[in-house]
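Hey team,

Filing this mostly as a record. A colleague (T.K.) asked me to run one chain through the structure pipeline before their review meeting, and I want the input and output archived in the tracker in case anyone asks later how it was produced. No errors, nothing strange. Just documentation.

Input sequence:
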Amino acid sequence: MDQRFTKALAILLLISVVLACSLLRGKRPLTWHIMLEIDATVPDRESAVRQTVTIIERRLDAAGVYNFEVLPQGIPPNGQILVNLPDVSDRERLQKLITAGGRLELTAVISPPSPAPVQTYDTSEEAAASLGKAVPANRRVLPYAERSEPTAAGNGSASNGQAKKWVVVESPAIVDGSNLRTASAVPSRTGSEDYQIAFALNADGSQKFGTWTGAHINEYIAVVLNGEVKSIAYIKSQIYDQGEISGRFTKQSAEDLALVLRSGALPAPVKIVEEGANK
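Output structure:
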């Protein structure tokens, strides 16, 4: 009886020590802050503030920041958010994680199908002119850092080029970040030291994507991140739930982007209007 009691007491003490260490780790002092401001043109700023607070908290948790405060300012909220933070080794990286838009879209490119090369334009004006007097509501003109050659979707990627081009894409997107199930950083399959982001879609996204790709073999699709085309591929066969974002990502930048995508896109652009030490 005494031996069982002693053993149970030892286990209880061990659990208490672990919990105490965890609590101590989570109580690092908040030594600095940033003040964020949501884009003033957002129609429902109060709702955007609430969503932004939730997403920033999710990102900080995922980044392993154990003590922080994300506080809407004003009653009702005035569009500003105060973020109090503990000291970290790389403040610039943390600021980028907090403010990254994280808006992912997979959208059809307006172009003749493969084997014809994807239709690109040298300027945004040239791309817009291809649509007539005005860009219709179901089209968008987006920048694209052109690759040497678009690849078959799911078959890897060509190396990055330097020329900035413009493309016309359909709107709305086939699927977007709300259809994302997971995202992770993986080494590039080109044999370089670059990384890419592999992602998988949820059931709803898979159904939409599978239906579209099955009906559009050899047509071009763009991976769009925060309003910029990151890669273009042609549909070689029906695809349901897998995709990738290719580019010259380092391991750290790929991991950070995957974290942002998993945490959800911000509902509106934010900017840092103040940074400083806490008194």
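Quick notes for T.K.: Residues 104-258 form a domain with the Gyrase A; domain 2 fold (CATH 3.30.1360.200). The helical segments are 2-26, 45-62, 91-99, 124-129, 203-215, 251-263.
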